[in-house]
Amino acid sequence: MMKLTSAASAALLLAGCASFSPDGGAGKVSELTKERTGQSVTLQRSESDVDTASGRVAELLKQPLTADSAVEIALLNNWGLQASFSELGIAEADRVRAGRLANPTFSFGRLSGHGVTEIDRSVVFDVLGLLTLPFASEVAQRQLEQAQYQAAFDAVGVAAEARKAFFSAVAAQDLVGYYEQVKDAADASNDLARRMLQAGNFSKLAQMREQAFYADATSNLARARHQAVAERERLVRALGLSGDQLAFKLPEHLPDLPKLHIEPRDAEQTAIDKRLDVQMAKRSAQATAKSLGLTRGTRFINVLEAGYTNKSQTGEARQNGYEIQLELPLFDFGATRMARAEALYMQAVHRTAEVAINARSEVRESYSAYRTAFDLARHYRDEVVPLRKRISDENLLRYNGMLSSVFELLADARDQVMTVTAAIEAQRDYWIAETNLQTALTGRSPGGSAAKGPAKSAGAEPAGH
Fold it and tell me: From CA 331, how far away is CA 463, in angstroms rounded?
């Protein structure tokens, strides 16, 4: 009896060591996110945390947005991201619960009749839970780490979406400004052609060509304006903005191209070592393997409880003793639990291999897209656009020397529409490709597909089921 009492006391002391962490597990998430995005994240668990984040967002919105400030706002203000952080609290609660012994069971029974009253009392402790407490705590700790990686995975995805939405919104706004200039030029050309036709100095065919250009310019401007609204709203959703926050300002133009392109070393190995989806898959397999070991250790003993009991009866001295409850493996020898655990482990192994293969492939594809986008954007910047400008300057000189007409000058302006549009889009595509490459190297799939969470561990099943 003394031994059981000592074991129960030791269990209570051990269980008291499991407690909640001060930051709710957010410190590791912030570290993983900052390493991959340059920005940290905070778990907003109180009204004060929300107010602090809102104040920082308001401060950032006072200035025209940049790609970095857009990412910071998204990590502070994206409500979906904060909702996903709640999984941290769930995982930590499970970790603390796994580190504590299950509450003892108290039973009381009373029988009376023919002048005799019999009372039974017992306090039963989960002995198997005590014996497996270190293993269960380790499994729960791994599951908490998995939740931290998942939270960082979500944060990296939000940051990447914010950057890409920012570049798309700026490019769309820039194109609106350009199409407005084209529309004004087309309007002037169409008006001049109409007046010259009335004066008999212009053919009907030439006038209709100018009118068609004006019609195209008008429709292109309408489409560009809608696209700018759509891209801005996409950015609004990525940043989680509403109300007065919608009045934020964007820069007039995209950032300039860097002088040199990125040459990542050992890109595929970097992805295997750093990518969060790869790390999550590895840890899921490791956690499942640990659970499998725990399942093997408790294969034939599913429920083992022991406790203190006493019995009193009218006219008799009280009887004291102990009680042991053990589930007998008569019909289920643990084979089903073992088979389930082994299937879960092999599932985790295969998923890890799939994620690793996909990561390597995505890095190669992202780098190809990045180099192509860089070369095209540089080609437009250094060759195509300057050439178009020289042609335009030459036409202007010819017009000033009365060697060409105003319509030839306007025709040259029409020819520049495709060039300028393609140049802006190429610059936008470069920055999006650069974001995708960085994400593929250290964060997650650039496609944005959510990583599959870890399968429920074999050791997580309640005892007795």
Answer: 16
Amino acid at 282: K
> HSE of 357 in the Cβ direction (CA atoms, 13 Å)?
6
**For residues 70 and 232, what is the distance between their CA atoms, to the nearest angstrom?**
12
The number of beta carbons lying within 10 Å of the beta carbon of residue 395 is: 19
**What type of residue sits at position 432?**
I
Nearest to 92 by CA among 28, 156, 154, 155: 28
> Which residue(s) pair with 306 in the sheet?
125, 324
User: How far is C-alpha 440 from the chain's CA centre?
Assistant: 13
| DSSP result, 138-161 | HHHHHHHHHHHHHHHHHHHHHHHH
Q: Which residue in 451, 459, 448 sits closest to 160, CA to CA? A: 448
Task: Tell me the pTM.
Answer: 0.76
- Among residues 348, 411, 346, 417, which one has the least CA distance to residue 385? 417
- For the chain, 465 residues long, give each residue's pLDDT as a single digit of tens: 444 445 445 445 555 556 766 666 778 888 999 999 998 888 887 788 888 989 999 999 999 999 999 999 999 998 888 888 878 777 777 777 776 767 777 777 777 766 677 777 777 666 666 666 676 777 677 778 888 888 899 999 999 999 999 999 999 999 998 888 888 878 877 787 788 778 777 778 877 877 888 888 899 899 999 999 999 999 999 999 999 999 999 999 999 999 888 888 888 888 888 889 888 888 888 777 776 665 555 444 444 455 555 555 555 666 665 555 555 454 445 567 677 777 877 888 888 888 888 899 999 999 999 999 999 999 999 998 888 878 777 766 765 666 666 666 666 666 777 888 899 999 999 999 999 999 999 888 887 443 343 334 333 343 333
Residue 63 CA from chain centroid, whole number: 26
Contact in structure between 111 and 117 (CB atoms under 8 Å): yes
Please give the backbone phi and psi of residue 415, each rounded to the nearest 5 degrees, phi first: -65, -25
Determine the Cα–Cα distance for residues 147 and 280; give it in Å rounded to an integer.
9
